[in-house]
UniProtKB/TrEMBL annotation:
GO terms for molecular function: ATP binding; methionine-tRNA ligase activity. It is found in: Cytoplasm. The gene is metG. Residues 401-483 form the Methionyl/Valyl/Leucyl/Isoleucyl-tRNA synthetase anticodon-binding domain. This is Methionine--tRNA ligase. It comes from Dactylococcopsis salina (strain PCC 8305) (Myxobactron salinum). Its EC number is 6.1.1.10. GO terms for cellular component: cytoplasm. A motif ('HIGH' region) lies at residues 15-25.
């Protein structure tokens, strides 16, 4: 059964373990989780891959500075990523660690394929290297007399050593054909243009090994060298595809989930994913992924975030203060994924209180209380098809799933949220206009039931469509509406959830016993002291 479903494989970047997770890593991961959940709702078999990138000079140096072994540095930080993902309610399927033994086997096999294809050669490499980016920089790109443009407090270091090179230049034409024929390979459009411009300038071979660096996978043909951390890390996506009991071979890894449907990354690592990675795959005779989406960068109170600025936002503190649903909703609703976006705690509290506490939460609460009084705590004895087509909520509701599906498929979470909240605000207007409490007093029971049905049903559909973003809230709403469905337990979906039914307006069953009305989203308070 599982094997017959459509598959969808999605990745977050594999995060560096030089430091504890920051909000940027949390941002990519919550977006990836929301898409994965949406695809699961649609009935696909989904594989969400995340993990950690554990080799290279940056990690080795961090461990040396702390006086611990690189492996224990990796183990500690990998565990802190995992615990953050639990707090953020991330349902990942694979956590890929590049120090895993099976990963080494995959990297070696892959290297050998590229070697056998004649795409690796030895030469002298001279250039400016940013250890924080783990990348050579062009001199013209350095700022303030030798500093990395991304890590402006890190001086680039001069390197002059023998390295193995990968023949990227050989793949110029094939990459151009890929971008041409698979037009949405790089998303959003603006990022695609950036890559096309870069490639048009002519691709240069890049070095894929390091000497004098132990913390890496040895080059199979020359163990004095270790494999460049990016060459190794990108293959972490392939290793992650192995089932636990599989032999670590490329053939096994690529059997079920390849090609990956979506690599979700930040814009700073686009070149690696959209240029180097497909070229490496072509060289190894492996088909290329379907899509790479480069999201924007987060700022805090309008300022670039950074340790040197002293204005980093700690995702753990944020989650402890406000909870997973609030954090997920703010970042996904407030920022268009391809654009840069800002975190501001005042704005955070305002958005959440307005959309989730007032508009959605209060609406459910007052409507349930009325259903309790006027309908014996059951859903009204109506079916969606009995509600007239000109009912304003039905009108919006009938089109909502299609619109939201388009938005999710474009990874436009903010549009998805706005569409859903539009139904919610209209439900609030409708309840005030119709005033079911006075219809009840006038003895107009049929009208009361029509109004309450349309509102309860609109809340249900909103909760369903929001569930990839706010799974806890949506589960509570569903339970108060009398469903035995927990959006955090995909196994509770079937046979309870028939996707086509739930995504249509009008599927709240008649006379369903309703749960107790309890606030589903408590108003947030901005603490007077210690802003985040
Ligand atoms: N290890 C590499 C990825 C290898 S993938 C095979 C790496 N790791 S990272 O930990 O430095 O970055 C991970 C992600 O965090 C990147 O997608 C990056 O864009 C993202 N962010 C880092 N700072 C960010 C913000 N301030 N805002 C949003 N995302 C940011 O790169």
């Amino acid at each position: 059964m599982e094997n017959q479903k459509k598959t969808f494989a999605i990745t977050t970047p594999l995060y560096y373990v030089n430091d504890v997770p920051h909000i940027g890593s949390a941002y990519t991961t919550m977006a990836a989780d929301a898409i994965a959940r949406f695809k699961r709702l649609e009935g696909n078999a989904v594989l969400l891959i995340t993990g950690t990138d554990e080799h290279g000079q940056k990690i080795q140096r961090t461990a040396e500075e702390k006086g611990i072994s690189p492996q224990s540095q990796c183990d500690k930080v990998a565990a802190s990523f995992d615990s953050l993902w639990q707090k953020l309610n991330i349902q990942y399927d694979r956590f890929s660690r590049t120090t895993a033994a099976r990963h080494e086997a995959i990297v070696k096999e892959f290297f050998q394929r590229v070697w056998d294809n004649g795409d690796i050669y030895l030469a002298q490499k001279q250039g400016w290297y940013c250890v924080s980016c783990e990348e050579f920089k062009e001199k013209r790109d350095l700022v303030n007399d030798g500093y990395c443009p991304i890590h402006t407090n890190k001086k680039a270091e001069w390197r002059d050593e023998e390295n193995y090179f990968f023949c990227l230049s050989k793949y110029q034409t094939q990459l151009e054909i890929l971008y041409e024929t698979q037009e949405d390979f790089i998303q959003p459009r603006s990022r695609r243009n950036e890559v096309l411009n870069f490639v048009q300038q002519g691709l240069q071979d890049f070095s894929i090994s390091r000497v004098n660096l132990d913390w890496g996978i040895p080059v199979p043909t020359d163990p004095k060298h270790t494999i460049y951390v990016w060459f190794d890390a990108l293959l972490g996506y392939v290793t992650a595809l192995l089932d636990p009991e599989d032999e670590p071979t490329l053939e096994k890894a690529l059997a079920r989930w390849w090609p990956i449907d979506l690599h979700l990354i930040g814009k700073d690592i686009l070149r690696f994913h959209a240029v180097y990675w497909p070229a490496m795959l072509l060289s190894a005779g492996i088909s290329t992924p379907k899509k790479v989406f480069g999201h924007g960068f987060l700022t805090k109170d309008g300022q670039k975030m950074g340790k040197s600025m002293g204005n980093t936002l700690d995702p753990v503190a944020l989650l402890d203060r406000y909870g997973a649903d609030a954090v997920r909703y703010y970042f996904l609703r407030e920022i268009e994924l391809g654009q840069d976006g800002d975190f501001n705690e005042n704005r955070f509290v305002d958005v959440l209180n307005s959309d989730l506490a007032n508009d959605l939460g209060n609406l459910l609460n007052r409507t349930l209380k009325m259903a309790n009084k006027y309908c014996n705590n059951q859903s009204p004895n109506l079916k969606g098809e009995q509600i007239p087509a000109e009912n304003p909520l039905k009108e919006i509701g009938m089109e909502l799933s299609d619109r939201v599906t388009v938005a999710y498929n474009k990874l436009n979470f903010s549009e998805a949220c706005k569409e859903i909240i539009h139904l919610v605000t209209n439900s609030n207007k409708y309840i005030d206009q119709q005033a079911p409490w006075s219809l009840y007093k006038q003895g107009k029971q049929a009208e009361v039931e029509e109004v309450l049905y349309s509102i309860l049903e609109s809340i249900r559909l909103s909760a369903y469509l929001l569930s990839p973003i706010t799974p806890d809230l949506s589960s509570q709403i569903y339970q108060q509406l009398g469903f035995k469905i927990d959006f955090n337990q995909p196994s509770s979906f079937e046979p309870n959830i028939n996707f086509d039914v739930h995504k249509s307006w009008g599927s709240l069953p008649p006379l369903q016993p309703l749960g107790e009305a309890k606030p589903v989203f408590l108003r947030l308070e901005l603490p007077e002291e210690s802003p985040l």
